[in-house]
Design brief:
about 180 residues, alpha/beta, Alpha/beta knot, about 20% strand
């Protein structure tokens, strides 16, 4: 078991599964609902938590942007806690693909804690919405921030605020909760 498991202390159980087939952009853009997108998420635990939370809140798909950890990396799969394979997915070049989704009527929301972003509690979810979360250290790539996309933030209480930002997976979780209300 130690030779074929990638964990130091395996639980004594292994599974062999086929990786689900990637969805096409055409198929995903024809849907309705909420799609999440990751822009260069590098921590496997964060991506797994994002997937698990997206499934909990009924997201219909995930766009895994270039520079993000592999959706089927063993640590990602473990941190989804069984949600692996529950979402349609597309390994995505976000710069190009978001434009195609917009042409198909999708609204793009960018999680962005900077000044000028709209508080997420003021956002109404449309029938076709993509919510993008950015890199843990650098946020959303500036190339994705264009005028027709809405920057949204999770407001902090100003009392004793001693942290710069939220963890990417936590921010996505809070945003999904708020949008589902």
């Amino acid at each position: 078991m130690d030779e074929i498991s990638d964990t130091e202390n395996s639980q004594g159980v292994l599974g062999v599964c086929e990786i689900p087939k990637e969805a096409s952009l055409e198929k995903l853009s024809a849907k309705e609902g909420l799609i999440i997108a990751t822009d260069r998420i590098q921590d496997p635990g964060n991506l797994g938590t994002i997937v698990r939370t997206a499934v909990w809140f009924g997201a219909s798909a995930i766009l895994v942007g270039k520079g993000s950890v592999d959706l089927f990396h063993p640590k990602v799969v473990r941190s989804t806690a069984g949600a692996t394979g529950s979402l349609s997915y597309l390994n995505s070049s976000l710069n190009e693909d978001l434009e195609k989704f917009e042409k198909a009527g999708w609204n793009i929301l960018l999680l962005d804690g900077n000044i000028g972003a709209t508080p997420i509690d003021q956002i109404k979810l449309s029938k076709k919405t993509i919510l993008v979360v950015g890199n843990e250290a650098n946020g959303i790539d500036q190339k994705l921030t264009i005028p027709n996309r809405k920057r949204v933030l999770i407001p902090a209480t100003e009392k004793n605020r001693s942290v710069e930002s939220l963890n990417a997976a936590i921010a996505m979780s809070i945003a999904l909760y708020q949008l589902s209300r």
